[in-house]
Amino acid sequence: MRLLKYFICIVVLIAITTAVIHKNKSETPPNVIIILTDDQGYKDVGFNGSKDIKTPHIDRIAKNGVVFSNGYVSYAVCGPSRAGLITGRYQDRFGFSRNPLFAPKDSTQGLPVSEENLAEALKRGGYTSMAIGKWHLGAHPTLRPLQRGFDQFFGFLTGGHKYFPKNWTKQDISEVTAQWDAYNTKLLKNNKRIDETEYLTDALSREAVTFIKENKKKPFFLYLAYNAPHTPLQATAKYLARNTHIKDKKRRTYAAMISAVDDGVGSVLDALKKHNITDNTIVFFLSDNGGPETKNGSNNGPLRDGKGSMHEGGIRVPFAVQWPGVIPAGNIYENPVISLDIFATVMAQTGITPRNALDGKDLIKHLTNPTLPGPHQTLFWRNYDKQTFAIRKDTYKYVQDGKEKIGLYNLSKDIGEQYPLKADSISQNLLETHQKWNNANPLPAFLGLRQNRAYNKKYPKRYHDLEKY
Ligand code: CA
What we know:
Strand content: 15-25%
Bound molecules: calcium ion
Shape: globular
Radius of gyration: 23 Å
Number of strands: 16
């Protein structure tokens, strides 16, 4: 009897040891995919209630994971928002307070090398990374993706691009002679210009699927930054045919561009499934800023204003994440989160220590323990040139979006920021908290899009050299 007991004990011990060893072996670091869209409206995804634009594949992320109903970005237009996302830090901390110009000879126009981006941090953890699509973090040779931690790049360096290959008439940036010319260059594959034949969004999705296939056995980071549905509004017959029920031509084309992204998201998720790595891959989906409704036909739903504004329509975006088996599926998370959290989440889940202090928080900790308070008590925004700003603390938001648009709102009762509350100790406290945060921010490090003329005057040969007058 005693012998039998010993025998059972030994068998149990062996079983436990084997289980522990097995678990450690299977615990490979998670792959990370960020799918970023450009100028997509808050309501223009199925998971935020879109009726006319169907996004069945983007909605798969929401069904497999969590929707952030109060998901923010750190700036209301493209460039600074991306700088925040990719560093996990408020971009104002390092002077990235303007939309950079396309200035390939200027090493200050983009993400300063003093900042560590997510690909650079993950490289220290043995990751292979690829950036696909819109870069917008510097066109100078020292600031391009391959110099900034990414092993591969497929896309374009500037803030936007035309969608049809027939428009890509510039061989490379040596032929660019004006800010918007860069929309017409051939695409870059790593450091080489290539002859691409597919509709841009489809080409970006194709490259994403190839990257996943080629790197399925090692930890990878894929930064898939679609420029859709940013202007120019250009879609193929295939995607327009899916949206004939939309009467307004602008919105129909915009919807078709989202359909192309949605198919791309579907092909990415299918690739994960095919290679059996869905459960070991964190997939984030978000837009870089709110929709410019009159410009591209987007819809921010109940939110006030859109791209460029410090009201919710400029900074609250469609945002979801999946990590099956880790994050519970099908939930809505209502506490405020921000794009800066992506970096912090990835660091926490991979055990890599970031080089700089992060402003974001580990979202997994909060998503897996709903009893915890939200990750942020306070969030900050500012637009240096316009002298506009906003601060959110709990459900209160103080916003200054122009001389006439100053107010305190309680977002839990007034998501549309329609009913300003009386200025009191809460607004005073928010104002002071924002001022304190803002006082620590340096001046913008470079001239931006709004200073295009001044920059041209300062550097008349800017596309070839930075010789001054
Ligand atoms: Ca944008």
